[in-house]
Every structure is written in C-alpha cells, then in structure tokens.
Amino acid sequence: MPALWLLVIVLILAAAGFVAGRSRAMADAQGDVRNLHSLPVYYGNHVMLAVLLPAVLILGIWLLLQPLAATQVASSHISPDSYADTGALSLIMSDVQRVAEGLNRAVAQGLISASDANALDATTTDVRALSVSAGVPVAAQVTPDMLAAAEAVRHVSAIGSWLMSGVVLAVALVAGFVAWSQITKDFRARNTVERVVKGLLILAAMIAILTTVGIVLSLLGNTIRFFGLYPAMDFFFGTTWAPSFGGGSELGILPLFWGTFYISIVALIVAVPVGLFAAIYLSEYAGPKVRAFAKPLLEVLAGIPTIVYGLFALLTVGPLLMKLFGQDGTFGVTWMQGGTSVMTAGLVMGVMLIPFVSSLSDDIINAVPQSMRDGSLGLGATKSETVRQVVLPAALPGIVGAILLAASRAIGETMIVVLGAGAAARLSMNPLDAMTTVTTRIVSQLTGDADFASPEALVAFALGMTLFVMTLGLNIFALYIVRKYREQYD
Amino acid sequence: MSLADANTPAPSAAPKSSILTTDARTKKRNRAEARFKAYGIGAIVLGLAFLAALLVSIIGNGIPAYTQTFVTVPVYLDPAVVDKQGNRDPAEMAKTTTFGYAPLIQNAFATEVSQNGITTDMAPKKLADILSASATGQVRQTVLDDPELVGQTVEFRLLASSRVDGYLKGRVTREALARDKNLDAAHLDIIDTLRTAGVVNRTWNWDFIFGADASESRPEQAGIGVSMVGSLFMMLVVLVLSLPIGVATSIYLEEFAPKNRWTDIIEVNISNLAAVPSIVFGILGLAVFIQFGHLPKSAPLVGGLVLTLMTLPTIIISTRAALSAVPPSIRDAALGIGASKMQSVFHHVLPLAMPGILTGTIIGLAQALGETAPLLLIGMVGYIASNMPDGIAAGFMAPNSAMPAQIYEWAKRADPAYYERAWGGIIILLLFLMTMNIIAVILRRRFERRW
Q: What dihedral do alpha carbons B238, B239, B241, B245 form, nearest 10°?
C-alpha cells in the first residue's frame, strides 16, 4: 500500500522537523531557554505541523479524486454503443476495475511480465482467465474496449501514485523548510501553533454541520431525482404500495404511514403508562434501596441493542401471540395469520421505550421543587393526590416532551419492525395483521444490488427524507413545548 | 350537674366523628392511595418482568448453540479415490472434488453403523444423511493438508446434520422429523443407538465462537468469528475517528467558542443529530461513501465511518458534560500563573476531564457495536462472511459482516436451525456490551472526581 508508506514517511519527516525546529531555536538562543519567546517544544511543533498538515491534506484529497479521474479516463474508451444507460456503464466500469486489479495482481504474482501486461490483446489472450488465476474473478467476457479501459485505469493509477508520492513529499519538505527558516529566538511560535490548533478544533466542530449537510443533500438530491421519475402526488396520496423492479410500480406512502403510526401508537400505549408509573413510583415512593436496585435494571432495557428486541419479537412474542390468537389458538379465533404483526412489533417496541419514558420523566419529576409537595401534603392531601394534582401538572410539559421524543424514536426504529412487523403494505384496522412501515421499506428497497437510477430504489430516499423531516419536526416540537410551558421555579 | 354538662351530648348518641376512627371518605382516599402505589409497583414489576423474559428467552434459546453434535467415524482414505496419480502431490490431489470423497465417507459410516450391531436396509448414501454436508469438505481439507494420511484409516470427528443436532437438543421432535423428507424414523433409531455407543455425542463447539459463516443449507457449520473480526475493525475505525473529533469539537464549543449565531447553529445541530434515526445515517453512508465516494460495499471501513458519524453526538454530549464539570477555578489558576488559554485547556482541564470522556466514549462505542440498521444499507447483509480477512488492509477494505448484521442475517434465513445461532450470537454480543459498560462504570467509580 503506497499511500500507507507515504504516510509513514511524512510522519517520519514530521518527527525530524520537530527535532530540527527545536534545535534551531535553541541554537539561536545560545542554548538558553530564557532567550526564547516560547517554550522550545512550540518551535518543534511549528515545523512538525507545517510538514504534516498540508501533506496529509493533499494526500487525502488525492486519494479521493484519483479513482474518479481514472474512471473518467477509462470510460472514454468504452464505445457509447455498447451500453444502454448509465447503469449499464457503471456495471461495465466495475468489471473494468476488476480486470485492472486482476492484471495488477498477475504482475505482482509473476504470472505475466509488466511489459506483457501493458501490451495485451483481448482477441488473443484470455484476460478473464488470467485475472481469475490471479485471484480476481471477473463476471463478463473481456472485450477489447474493456481491456483498453482497464489498461487506461492501470496507467492512470500508476502515474497517479508516482505523482502523488512526489507532490506530497515535495509539499512536506518545502513547507517544513519554510517553517524551519522562519525560526529565530524571537519568533512567536506558541501563538502560531495555538492558532493552528484552534483552527483544527473549529474544523472538527464543522464535521457536525457537514454531517447534517451531507444527510440533507444525499436525501434531497435523490428525492428530487425520484420525483422526476414518479409524480409527487401519487407518492404522498397513493393508497397502494406495490413496487416491482420490472416497472409499473405503485409507490403510495399512505399504507406505510398507517403501519408506522399504528405500531408507534401500540408501542406508546405500552410504554407511556408503564414508564410513567415506574418513574412516579421510583421518585415519590421508593426507598433508596429499591431505587438503587430497580432504576439501573430498568435502564438495562435501554442498553440492549434493537436487533435483540427484533429477534425477541420475531421468535418469542410473535409465536406467543399466534398461540393465543392464531389458528388452533387458546382463544379459538383466527385473527392472526402469521407471527409478524402490528401487535408483535408494537409490544416489543413498547418494552424498548419503557426506560426511555421512565428515565426522562424521572428527571422531570425530580425537578419539581420539594416545597410544592410539602405544601400539598401539609394541606392534608395524600401522597397520590399530591402526585396527581400538584407534581404531575407541574411536570406535564416535560412529560409531554418525553412522550413526543419517545414517539420520534418509535417512528424511526428499524430493526424491531423489520423483523417483527411483516412486509405486507395494507390499510387495515386489525392490530394482529402484518403491516409494514417506512423504515422497513427503506431497508428492503436499498438492500440488494439495485442501481440508483430506478424509481424503485430512489423511492427509499424519498421515504428517508419523509422520515427525517417527521422525526426532526417531532423533536423540535417537543423542545418547543418543554421550553414554552416550563414552569420557572427559581 | 351543671348546665355545661347538660349541653354536651351524651357520648353514646354522638356520630362517629373522632379523628381516631376513619370515615368513609378517608377510607376511599386511602384506598385510592393504595391503588396508586400498587400501579407504581405494578409498573416496576412489569418492566423487570419484561427484562427477565428477554434474558430468559436469550439464554434459554442461545445456550444450545454452544454445543454441537459430532459423529466419530474412522474413514479409510482409499488411494484409488483420493490420490489417483499416486504421487501424493496436493496439487494433483485437489482435482478430486468433495463429490469424490462422498462415497468414502458414506461407506465408512455404514461400516461404523453395522459394527455397532445395527442392521439396516438403508443404502449408505441415505444413511449418511445423518452427517453434515460439510463432512466431505472437512475430510478433503485434512487430506490435502497432510497427504501422508492417504492409505491410512483416520478417525474423523464429523459434524452431524443440523436436524440430528436439533433432535439431540430436543429442538426438533420425532413427529416433526417424520414429516420432514430428510430423515426417517429409522435414522433416529440409529442415532439413539449410536449415541449410547458414544459414536454420536454433543460437545462444546469452539467453531461457533471463532468460525466462519456457512451457506444457507448448513446451519451446523456456521460461526460468528469472522463477523466478530469485522465488528472489531469497525470499532477501531470508530474509536480512532470519533474520539479525537468528538473531543476537539467539545473543547472548541465548551472552551473557545464565542457565543454567537454560528456556535448556536452548531449546538442545535449536534442535539438534533443525536435524535436522527440510525437508518438515516445508513442512507447517508450509502449515498456519500458508496454512491459518491466509490468505497467498496460491505467494507468495515465504510461501516466504521457511518457509525462514527452516528456516535459523534453521543461522545460530544458526554465530553462537554465532563469538561464543564471541571471547576472554573482550575482554569483561573492556570491562567493566573501565566499559562495561555490553550495551555490551561490541554494541560489542566482535559486531563481532569479524561475519565468522564473515556466513560462517554466507551458507552458510545457500545452503542455503535450493537447498531444494525445502518449496516443493512451499506451491504453488510446478504454477504456470507466465510473467510477471515487476510491482513490489516483487507480487514478494513474487504467485504465482511458485523456481529449484529450476522445475527440479523441468521434470523432471516429459512432454516429454523439458524434461529438458535442467532440467539447464541446475541449472547456473545451482550457479553461484549456488558464488559464495555462494566469498564465504563469502573472507570467512573475509580477516577471520577467530585469538586
């Protein structure tokens, strides 16, 4: 891996720069630290950062752009008649990449000499077999076009690697030398280094912004492409969800919405009473011993990964509900056709949300000042009356906020519904029917090798956008309620 | 008798309104009180009961995955089949495929059965349905690794098929197997006899913990080891990226950022990112790293990058809490003796906040380790993780699975024998998470300072 070696060399140069910068400063100060403007270590760091930062930056950008450039050059070798659309081109290009990789390995393993590899003829040599024998399987037969493109890829990569090494090392050396020659005993090294470090800190803080921008752009771009292929009205108001990769899909979001909301409501019906009462008991009634024992145990439920809940829904709760409501079940009814249903997913999701509701409500109830409780108790109210008539009204905005946050969690939850809710998109009232949700459909439309050009794959981005907007809206609304209606006690 | 006495009603005639006796209304209120308290206790008990049900079903269903049924069979490695050229050259011998080995094993097993005093009119091929389909591959690999074994009779511990395994574990009943086309009742009688003879036995199965995933038809062979390595590489990426970036972001926001609109935007952003559903991060990873950045699908590097972005808000929030818990007097003292702002932060505040930061990071990592949804979108399912990555670079770049993705993959497969594996995998995953959380708690208990 040349890039890795390059990085190691740059690091060694940086270390050498540190020593050089430090000793130059010390020499200029006649070996007496007191003559220096900054501590000696800052002079070293100054040179080290000058060597490291530009070189690593260039290395990173280069590594990012080189494959793009290689693909660009190579795709010009593929004649436009041999592929129908950009999807087919990208398939050909991935084969080209593999052929290039196979040839590289063949040269490295000594199956073929480097000069022979550069002058192959697809009509006389079985390039595919050569590539396979080097350990890189190639799907399609290699045409002369593809071979030429593969050779171009190899050519560009080879030149690129050399050029990259040269440029990166030159930049490192030049920047290091400039920084080194700046050093005198009066050079304000600490200020310079601290400015750079602060710049790095700001850069890190920008990553949070970049992530949001990335999310919005990746969702928005593909969503717009989707609406170019499929009418937005049919998407938002269609009542049928029937994607078929052959074309003629009906992609109405309403059945998915219905499934999502139904499951979330079942989950909240389980989680809110249990979580709320648990929080009330823990903060108002429980002694320190019970609290120290029950609170962490309840919070264990929050630390369990969702895949575990999904499996629990699929393999334990689903069959259990089948035994009760399914064919030949305890109640002798046939309300349930299969183990996956709204109820299965909703119940398990409710269990998952219990600690979420309880720990948030616990914090909020504890924030209600003790003097209010004392006042109520002093007037002769019982403890439960105090809770119902004084504590809960005071904590209500916070609790509503907690429930809204739990709802946003429920809407965005994926693994439980993927495993527990089923795949049938239907608008039914029966909670024992299998239904499907927005997140489930995102997973099923984007797993597999669908290309990103068909509306059936792009619809997942539109679904993701809807999900993102919904959960974000709920969160902002929850925060707004909490802020607006919060009682100020102090 | 005085007048006052006459005016006082006689005690017997008085209505019962003493504070020592409770009236109906008070009783009602007390009942409501007791009921309310009972609801609270009920909620706690219900919550704990859910936890118990979850753990019981994980452990009850998962433990059997750690044992596996093996059949001990002496196989005569016939040179006429195994080494047709007779020169013990592994390259030549590799031309005999696993199909070529099948008769050897079938006959060996038939002999073993008859030696245990069982008479059966089943053909050796049908009899060998008891063995896993992986048996031929296992024998072939042993022979290719050590050509000197050719011509000898070697004792092999071969995997039994998953149905036999299920029968021994009580997962599959006789009635269910009778409806199945793969095994007959006669097979089961043979298994019972061989079991008492010690030929068929159930032992601890290291291959489940360290082995590779197998194809859909061979649940008995599947292990979680390779995806564990995939998870390890992913966690390395997450640790190396999210710790420095998270700490740097927190230091800037907590110590240096001026209070203006820009930093407000960053702060609101981070708290919103913490609430974005994890699947949206999967879409981001798919669009940015795979669609745009052309990184390989299913690579732990991509998984690590996506999980880094997902974990960053968690780490930032806990790091900021740790930093702001360091009292201002520390900063003032450092500034007072001439340290620069940067020096006061890096030399004094950061070391003091380190235990809190590490605790938050470990909890963030634990969260990332168990996360599945984003991994589904970047292609970590549907891929059979059958080979250990060769080398560090391949560990990051070559397609692999991850523990939660592997568990999901098993849960999706049609053969119910895989469900046991999925539960077993969950036990390992939870052990990892438990260890990480315990380390976090210990770190907090030992090093956290209260100011």
A: 120
ipTM of the complex: 0.89
Domain limits for position A75: 2-187
Per CB-CB distance under 8 Å, the chain A contacts of B294 are 67-68, 71
Q: Is A37 a domain residue?
A: yes
The two three-digit tokens of residue A157, written as one number: 């990569």
Q: Indicate yes or no: CB of B266 within 8 angstroms of CB of A460.
A: no
For chain A, give the mean pLDDT. 86
Nearest CA in chain A to B263: A205
Is A369 a member of any domain?
Answer: yes
By the CB < 8 Å criterion, does B32 face chain A?
yes
Indicate the residue of A64, A197, A464 with minimum beta-carbon distance to B293. Answer: A64
Q: Is A138 left (phi over 0), alpha (psi -120 to 50) or beta?
A: beta
Same domain, A133 and A252: no
CB contact under 8 A, A212 and B256: no
Burial class (CB in 10 A: 0-12, 13-18, 19+), A160: middle
Q: Where are the domains of chain B?
A: 67-204, 225-447
The helix/strand/coil state of B68 is: strand
Q: How far is CA A449 from CA A251, A445, B379, in A?
A: 20, 10, 9
Residue A459 lies in a domain: yes
Residues A314, A418, single domain; the answer is yes
pLDDT on residue A261: 94
Q: Reply yes or no on whether the pLDDT at A273 is more than 80.
A: yes
Please state which CATH number belongs to domain B225-447: 1.10.3720.10
Closest CA to A410 of A332, A362, A352, A344: A352
The predicted structure's pLDDT at residue B176: 75
Q: Quick one: what percent of chain B has pLDDT higher than 70?
A: 96
Q: What is the CATH number for A380?
A: 1.10.3720.10
Q: Residue A180: which of A37, A45, A31, A38 has the closest Cα?
A: A45
A178 and A245 in one domain? no
Whether A209 has its CB under 8 Å from any CB of chain B: the answer is: yes
Contact B48 A298 (CB under 8 A): yes
Examine the domain organization and report whether A270 and A395 are in the same domain: yes
Collect all residues of chain B within an 8 Å Cβ-Cβ radius of residue A270.
none
Distance of CA A125 to the CA centre of its chain: 44
- What distance in Å separates the CA atoms of residue B394 and residue B83, rounded to the nearest whole number? 35
